Amino acid sequence: MTITIDRPEAPAGPPKLDRDALRRAQAETLDTPRMAYSLLAKMMFKPVDLMYGKQGSFTKFAMLEVIARVPYQAWERMGYWAVHRYAGRSALAKRVFERIVEARADQDNEQWHLLIMQDLIQRNGMRQNWLLHKVAPWFISFFYYHVSWVLFLVRPEASYRLNAEFEDHAEHEYMTFVADNPDLEFMPDPGTYADEYGRYRSVADLMRQIGHDERVHKLASLENVKDPHWAPSR
To answer: Would 194 be classed as within a structural domain?
Structure first.
């Protein structure tokens, strides 16, 4: 059976904030307690802190952004499987496809974060260890992908909750990093990806924007916890 689904428009992505709004967003994050992280989340955060240090850095953030794309990739894969499974139920298939488009857009946003971090690493002459910045991210991503995939298969809301915890962690890490490094206010945004991501007055504002993006992803996942829309097991 062949079904026709109108392709949903790709989401615009997290809003781009001006300088004052970015500063307010940072203050809001720093004034908000972190989520109560689950054991699974802690199993990812702890090794990262041990290998890269508890303090933020461009190299640590690059590693985190490699991992950040993983749940969206898992959901996209599950979505295509579900579209095929629910081919005879066009309304449900359409909702699933809309979720695929959302996951793809969020994944692309995380990819821009990674490209920006890699650019800052290169511009600042930082070196990346093959073991810590190639092998370790692959293993952690492998673990996170399969956890996200299995959770989404049996209990979608748990997969969304885990991603919300990861995004909450990233949001606080970025905003804390800016607060702890006031010199970033005087480091101009190189604007390498300005056409795609926007140009900011400083690297501090660029990092604040990324931190706010993570908040948007977190809030979206928390909304999906309340209403997963569809579940493969149902």
So the answer is: yes
Range 97-102 contact pairs with CB under 8 angstroms and sequence separation of 24 or more: 97/5, 97/7, 97/8, 98/8, 99/75, 99/229, 99/230, 100/75, 100/76, 101/7, 101/8, 101/9, 101/10, 101/11, 102/11, 102/220
Chain centre to alpha carbon of residue 92: 26
Question: Global pTM?
Answer: 0.88
Structural domain boundaries, residue 220: 42-226
Q: What is the CATH number of the domain that holds 199?
A: 1.20.1260.140
Measured from the Cβ of residue 186, the count of other Cβ atoms closer than 10 Å reads 9
Of the candidates 224, 220, 169, 225, the one whose C-alpha atom is nearest the C-alpha of residue 11 is 220
Q: How close are the terminal C-alpha atoms of the chain, in Å? A: 21
* Residue 184 in domain: yes
CB 157 within 8 A of CB 225: yes
Number of domains forming the structure of the chain = 1
Does a structural domain hold residue 1? Answer: no
Convert the pLDDT of each residue in 166-194 to its tens digit. 999 999 999 999 999 999 999 999 999 99
